[in-house]
Every structure is written in C-alpha cells, then in structure tokens.
C-alpha cells in the first residue's frame, strides 16, 4: 500500500481504494441506493439505503476479502489464506478463496451456529473449530499459518481490506451524484471500522460535502467513545450481544486514525431500535437486515435530532440473520 | 399503441416496450440479477433472480402504472385515474399518480388489510371502499369514472400496462447479455399475464434463445390450462388463496394471444413450495418475497425435472407480505 507520510507505512489512501475497486470490479456487486417515502416520513428527511445485505455472501465483507486476495503476490495466494471469524468475514474470505481456487482455513468457535459453519464449508473452506473457553484462537491461528504457510487476512486492520470496503464508498458517491446530492450524512454500521474508514476515505476524495458517522449498538460504542476521547478506547462492555456482527472491543490501529481524521461524531442505538429498523426494512424495502446491519438505519429513523443534513445515506451492512431473531424483529411491527 | 395487423388494433409490439421503457426511464428502478451458489445447488443449474420486490411500491406493478400514465394525453391525465385493486396494482397506480400530481381513486374492498389501505392513502390516493358482498365494484367504478371524468387503468389487459411490464424484460436481456448468457428459460410469476407477456415480447426481440414460461399456484393455473387448450380457459378454482397477488380467474384478452404465441408450457407449484421458496429467498438472497412473488423461484428450485435449460432466470414479482405470513414461510426452514 502507498504511504501518506513517512511515519505511517500502512496508511490507506484514496488511490488505494480506486486501485482495489479496479481489482474487484466484475466480482463485487454494485449495490444500489434504495428508498421509501414511508421511511423518509419517519425520519423527517430523505433516507437512501445502501443494501450490502445483497452483496455476495450477504455482507460487505466480501469486498475486503476479494480485495485482500487480489492484492497478494500470486505465490503467496496460491499457498492459501486463513481467517478467524464466526460470521461474515469468514464467508467473504471463503468465497474469495474459492473463486481463486486456493485453500482457505477459517478458525471458528465450536459453538458458532451450525448453519454458519455449514455455509463456510459449503463455500469450500476448511473449518477448524476451537473451544472458546479452553483454547487460544490467536495461538492456534499462528501455529496453523506457520505450519501451512498460509497468509492471514484480518477482518479490518489490513490496508487491503479497508481499501476493498472503500469500494462501497465509491459506489455511494457515483449514485448520489447521479441523484444530484452534494450534501449528506453517511451513517455506517461500525464494528472494527473497516467499512466506516474505507467509505470515509472514498468520500473524502469524491464527495467533500459528505460527513461519515459510525453507528454502533449502545454499550458497544467504542468508536464513538474513541472519537470523543481522541484515542483508541474500549467500550468495556460484554463480549456478546444482539448485534453480533459489529461487536468489537475497540477500533483498529489502522482504522482509528482514519475515523479520527474524517468521521464523527458517533451514534449509538438500542437493541430495540435495531429490531424495529429490521422490521421496517422488511416492510418498506423488502430487505433482510441482520441486527448489526440495521443500526445505521435505526439511527436515521429514531435519532433524527442528532442528525443535521437534509439527506442521510445509510448502509445495511449485512443480512445474515437466523429466522428466530428475524421473527423477533417482526414482532415489533 | 401500434398495430401488428389490421385485425388486432390493440396488439402490443416490441417497439411499444422500447417506447414505454424510454418514457419511464429514471423513475423505474433497474433491478439487478442476483444469485446464490446455494440456490444453484438446490436447483441443479444456474439460477438468476430478478427481484422486482425491490421495485418502487414493492412490486413490478409500478412499471405498468407509470407507463400507462405517461402514455395518456396530458389533458386526460390531469383529470385523474381510477383503478380497482386491493394490492400491488393499487400502490403502483397511486405512486405514479402522485408523481404526476394528478388525482387517483382506488376502489378497494372494505375488508382489505388495514395496512394496504393506509399505504395506498399515504401515497396520496383517494380510497373508495366497497362492500364485497353487497356492492358491484365494476358499476361503482364506472359511475365514479363517469362522474369525475377519470381514466381507468386496468391491472393487465391494457397495452400501455403490458408495455411497461415489458421493461423488466429489456433489463433481463441486457443483464443476461452482460453475463454471456444466450440460452435460458425465464420463469415468470403469472396472474393475468401482464408481466409474463411483456417480458416475452421484450425477449422475443432481444433474446431469441430465451423461452418464457408462466408459473402459477396449483389450482389457480389458468394460464397453463389456457396454453394447453389453445384458448382462454378459467381455472375454475376458488377466489382466494395464499398467493393472493396472482390469483386471476383467466388470462386476459390482450395477454393471452401473446402468451400463446411466445410462452409455455406453464408450471404450477404448491403453496408449501411457495413458502419454502420465500424462506430460501430470505436465507440466501436477503430478499422479502410475497407468496405470489415466490412461485417462479419455487418452480426453479423444486420442479427442476420440468426445466431443460442450464440457466433459469426467475422473477420475484413482489414483496408485499404481512409479518404473519412471512413468519409462516420461515417456519419451513
């Protein structure tokens, strides 16, 4: 990756995003901007929704995974890749590896949902299960990487991954420009900050009138706290919660400087608001959102007083949700 | 509308579809072709899904409504439009009229779901309720049309409506061509045949290697029976059923000759299969399909022995389903 300064050798630039978008073009889906007059009415402003739940593997994570694999020297890629994930990143990496015909090892907790394990295997990956309580995932991964000579693809703190997620920002810029929109707040579902920072970098170049704001679940709002404190700060909350896809303890070493320079302030929504947003995405957009993928829409719909722009663009970052949780969301209608 | 022969003054041609597509461009959403390796595996062939549930108002009906209003002489359009519908056509006409700033009267049964009545009103239409048991809808509509000088927009047997629905076929042709597909069976959810015949006309010109086939619910398969008999034949079944959006007694006077010339044989799926297809659209595509909108996907997934092509393209024609019915579909997972 190119460097912005001598002291930040791994910084990501707008150029890296254009380069990643070019590498993954024709593989990644260009997701549209959707809308509903009913959502506009609830929000009190224009709401445009970018449905990354319609991306391959059901979340934006495939963008970063495909970007990372496409940026590897082919000799490295041929030996294969490894990732830790019980969810969306696992499926993104598995699919990208399958497309390249290279091995993928995904380290998953043995108590991960059976369907997610089955899906990851069905995408051609070798799933290595570990016992969350007794085994050290990082040590297991390092040993496997050493033994097999495979390359680790981190979920967000990797410049190639951030650049890939940024391709979503280029699409937002192009589609918003076609609609004549020059000022907007862009609310992004935020875990480790890969998607948020990538979109922010893309829009910095393409849409200087846009402001990017991370959205998190209440109690897991480490990005918001870190932006307020001006340094990486953990949320100090529990490990588990409804919005499983975006529950990271703290922003990344690479993502935080980008968030800090370009994004904020952060927003946080309750689990109940996330469930109601899922129900409204069902009813008004005909989309399946997972809880963590619905927090940005929830902020647009239910936290309007914290938003200034006349137009708000929100990501639905993923739709990998089980039927039981979805039924719970529908019960809020 | 242009005529193909002297004896069929209202026949619709491929040129009418191009003209309609031109009039509605920029208003109608170009919906993509989506796919999932998991669906391909179930079907035993490549499955491409055209999600018209993502169209404005949640179904393809907006295409035909916008097309009809855009083709009216402006003096007629200014006086307003009238439609009978408790469902998707109502919302399509209401939205198109709202965009033109002209009055819309929608005649709905008083026992229609409260949400659908509320939605149609929220789109600016005047909803006139009638008692299904005691009042004659057609007489009521004719009296209102006479009194107010408004124009009737029929749900399918109108050349302007058929041409508008055909715009979905032009999109299928363009997107399939970009994927290098030249042979495919195109399965279309079929009520009165407006969408099926429109798509067939569009593909006749654009994709001569494609075969269009109507899909209906078992017991409501009047298009299939009519194609077999070579003349318009009713299904003779009940009026109501799970797949409410596509339960018409018989193909239309305008749509049937097109179906007969270009389409078939028809397919029919069970309600259980439609529900399972809804559940798989939820799980694998992150889309909300209504029962009638899921029958073509159901045929692709569960009636593979009746299909020959290596690639099947299916419409999901709408997603306007209540939470209770959707939960019933999820129970099949």
Task: Describe the fold and architecture.
The structure is a homodimer of 333-residue chains. The first copy, chain A, is of the alpha/beta class and 333 residues long. The first copy, chain A, folds into two domains: 14-60 and 158-330, Rossmann fold (3-Layer(aba) Sandwich); 62-152, Rossmann fold (3-Layer(aba) Sandwich), CATH 3.40.50.1100. In chain A, 45% of the residues lie in helices and 14% in strands. Chain A has 14 helices and nine strands. Chain A has helices spanning 14-24, 37-43, 61-71, 74-79, 88-100, 114-122, 137-148, 159-178, 194-206, 222-229, 255-262, 271-285, 295-302, 323-330, and strands at residues 46-51, 81-84, 104-109, 126-130, 151-152, 184-189, 210-217, 267-269, 311-316. In chain A, the strands form two sheets. A five-stranded parallel beta sheet of chain A has the order 1-9-6-7-8, sandwiched between helices. In chain A, strands 4-3-2-5 form a four-stranded parallel beta sheet, sandwiched between helices. Chain A is globular and about 55 Å long. Residues 1-9 of chain A have low confidence and may be disordered. The A-B interface holds A 29, 32, 34, 37-38, 41, 51, 53-54, 58, 119, 122-123, 279, 282-283, 285-289, 319, 323, 326-327, 330-331, 333 and B 29, 32, 34, 37-38, 41, 51, 53-54, 58, 119, 122-123, 279, 282-283, 285-289, 319, 323, 326-327, 330-331, 333. Chains A, B: Keywords: Lyase, Pyridoxal phosphate. Chains A, B: One of its GO terms (molecular function) is L-serine ammonia-lyase activity. Chains A, B: One of its GO terms (biological process) is D-serine biosynthetic process. Chains A, B: Belongs to the serine/threonine dehydratase family. Chains A, B: Its cofactor is pyridoxal 5'-phosphate.
């Amino acid at each position: 990756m190119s460097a912005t300064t001598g002291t930040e050798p791994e910084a990501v630039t707008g150029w890296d995003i254009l380069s990643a978008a070019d590498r993954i073009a024709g593989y990644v889906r260009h997701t549209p901007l959707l809308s509903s007059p009913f959502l506009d009415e609830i929000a009190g402003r224009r709401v445009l929704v970018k449905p990354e739940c319609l991306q391959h593997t059901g979340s934006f994570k495939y963008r970063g995974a495909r970007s990372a694999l496409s940026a590897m020297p082919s000799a490295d890629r041929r030996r294969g890749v490894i990732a830790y994930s019980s969810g969306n990143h696992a499926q993104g990496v598995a699919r990208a590896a399958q497309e390249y015909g290279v091995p993928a090892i995904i380290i998953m907790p043995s108590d991960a949902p059976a369907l997610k394990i089955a899906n990851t295997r069905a995408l051609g990956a070798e799933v290595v299960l570990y016992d969350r309580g007794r085994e050290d995932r990082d040590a297991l991964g390092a040993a496997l990487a050493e033994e097999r000579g495979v390359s680790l693809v981190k979920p967000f703190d990797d410049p190639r991954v951030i650049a890939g997620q940024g391709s979503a920002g280029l699409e937002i810029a192009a589609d918003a420009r076609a609609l004549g929109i020059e000022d907007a707040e862009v609310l992004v579902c935020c875990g480790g900050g890969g998607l948020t920072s990538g979109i922010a970098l893309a829009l910095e170049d393409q849409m200087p009138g846009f402001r990017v704001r991370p959205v998190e679940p209440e109690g897991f709002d480490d990005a918001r706290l870190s932006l307020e404190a001006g340094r990486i700060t953990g949320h100090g909350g529990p490990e588990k919660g409804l919005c499983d896809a975006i529950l990271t303890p703290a922003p990344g070493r690479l993502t935080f400087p980008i968030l800090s320079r370009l994004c904020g302030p952060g927003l946080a929504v309750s689990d109940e608001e996330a469930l109601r947003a899922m129900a409204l995405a069902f009813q008004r957009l005909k989309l399946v959102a997972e809880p963590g993928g619905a927090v940005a829409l929830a902020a647009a719909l239910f936290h309007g007083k914290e938003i200034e722009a006349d137009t708000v663009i929100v990501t639905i970052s993923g739709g990998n949700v089980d039927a039981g949780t979805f039924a719970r969301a529908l019960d809020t209608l």
